[in-house]
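Continuing from yesterday's entry. The apo prediction looked reasonable, so today I'm repeating it with flavin-adenine dinucleotide included to see how the binding region is handled. Same sequence as before; SMILES copied from the compound registry.
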Amino acid sequence: MNSVYDCIIVGAGPAGAFCAWRLASQNLKVLLIESSKHTKRKVCGEYLCPKGVQLLHESGLGDYAESNFNKLHGMKIFTSRNSEVYTRFPNAGPFSYGLSLNREKFDRHLLNLCHAVGVEVHKDESFVDFTSYDEICEIRTSKGAYKTRVLIGADGRKSKVAQKLGFSEEATNHRVAIHAYLEPKTAFERMGEMHILSDSSYFGIDPIHENEINISLVCDGESVRKHGGMLKTWNHYIQQSPKLLKEFGCLDENTPLYAVSPIQHRVKSIHSRNIVLIGDAAGFVDPITGEGIFNAICSAKILSDELIKARTQSLTNYKPGVARYAEQHKKTLAQKAKLNRVFQWVIRHPSVVEFIAQFLKKSATRANAFVGVIGNIYSPQQGLIEMFKRKAS
Ligand SMILES: Cc1cc2nc3c(=O)[nH]c(=O)nc-3n(C[C@H](O)[C@H](O)[C@H](O)COP(=O)(O)OP(=O)(O)OC[C@H]3O[C@@H](n4cnc5c(N)ncnc54)[C@H](O)[C@@H]3O)c2cc1C
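Holo prediction written out below.
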């Protein structure tokens, strides 16, 4: 335990691996600790929003992403009262499309980049606890102990780093996601789909490729108990959507289903001196806006930029960089997180969902501005201006 790392990062998801890669590319000494032995395909809708595509391009990963994953051109929104809103990502930013990733492939690629720039990667090792001194943090894992100048928690929605900091807060809801990869019967357009049901549950669909549809059901945990398990809950809800029922039918026990819970992760702060949280560890509201991957790489980029800057000022004191990250994080991501919380209220009120659907249906440019906000092409404020300034077309 003699050598001191510049940064120890806990968690090799997109947030942790992207951050580790960028820091080590600038010659910082980085240790990346990941509890899983193998990179797995996580429960995730796998949709990367247009702003995320831009971020990959700006980071030199655009060509990789575009040659490996299919484009998504917009989103179809279905309400419980059978309205359909057809939207396309507006042509207002450098990229007017998202991508259908495969998380196993994407996460592994990021990890390979880490290896290539000299990140020390410890798989099958779990972060346990830390002790913080003025400029050094000592961390203990399932396999050893290490010293670092900065400890970065990128360990997802159940972040142990956030817990040990005392930053985790009780969830305000108990949502569950049930997830499957299904084979379509008909050809899917290269569009995402959101099917909002009458009791605030919803199905999110991402057509990964012609033979594989990524589909997630998000519902209250209470529903799963009431219906008697994952399969029965799934089949209960699929019958509420005539379109999905026709496409996929009810599932039988041979279809692999995966569940995750809790979904929400609330934290009261994202930094303390030289300890900092990124990605889902820094907070996650709900997958309905499909931007967790973007948030993960965006927060990792902001933090790595600030730490690299801090290093030019002092070789040992990264605290000013951590503090600047926290400010930037708030400016960049907080407005959309607030909007996501508003959506949590909206989807619990079917008449409001229907009102919004009818409002969007009146004009294609209005509907596209709405999905421009969802895809982070517009900030919520810009999107509202776009929605109201245009006449119905
Ligand atoms: C149902 C569902 C659908 C979603 N759909 C989308 C979507 O379509 N688009 C989108 O952008 N986002 C989506 N998301 C969100 C997205 O999956 C996450 O936001 C994203 O994975 C966050 O990345 P991360 O690196 O912060 O965390 P993670 O990907 O969760 O990575 C955290 C890593 O930390 C490791 N770890 C945890 N604890 C420890 C420990 N103690 N020690 C060491 N390692 C540890 C874990 O093994 C994991 O590899 C969805 C989420 C859900 C639940």
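Comparison notes:
- The mean pLDDT is 95.
- The first helix runs from residue 14 to 25.
Will overlay with the apo model tomorrow.
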